[in-house]
Amino acid sequence: MGNLDGNVWRWEFQWRRNCFVWEEPMKMEFLELLNQFVPSVGRDKWLWRMNRDQGFTVNECYVLMQQKYRVHSVLVPVAEFAFNNLWKCGAPSKWRVQSICFSIAIARPKSGMIL
């Protein structure tokens, strides 16, 4: 993929085939993007830039996306309340909901039974 030449990283690609003419601009754009990246010698790790101390949480990601991509539309008050309180509710976990549904499905009376 590449070599460290002194303090400069040099990318070396072996393409499986020559690029078509229409692919050349995309290839050049790709190489320009890659030239901005310099691999490090240290150990790699994932880092959530929004919260470096605690790390990634789905709640933080949801809030970030809600702030960044919020569609400014008028919601019905009930829907707005539901969306704003989504992470505050004590909703049961997925497996609990599935087990409750399974229990209801087993316990329901057979069709044709007289209640």
What order do the helices and strands come in, and which of them pair?
Blueprint: E1 2-5, E2 8-11, H1 24-35, H2 58-69, H3 77-84, H4 94-107
Antiparallel strand pairs: 1-2
Overview of this structure, please?
- By secondary structure, the protein is mainly alpha-helical.
- The chain has two domains: 34 residues, no CATH class; 72 residues, no CATH class.
- Helices cover 40% and strands 7% of the residues.
- The protein contains four helices and two strands.
- The chain has a two-stranded antiparallel ribbon.
- The longest helix has 14 residues.
- The chain is elongated and about 65 Å long.
- The mean pLDDT is 75.
Low-confidence stretches: none
Shape: elongated
In N-to-C order, the SSE pattern is: EEHHHH
- With helices defined by DSSP (H or I, 4 residues minimum), what is the helix count? 4
- Helix vs. strand class: mainly alpha
Essential attributes:
7% strand, 2 domains, 115 residues, mainly alpha, two-stranded antiparallel ribbon, single chain
Q: Could you provide a short overview of the structure?
A:
By secondary structure, the chain is mainly alpha-helical.
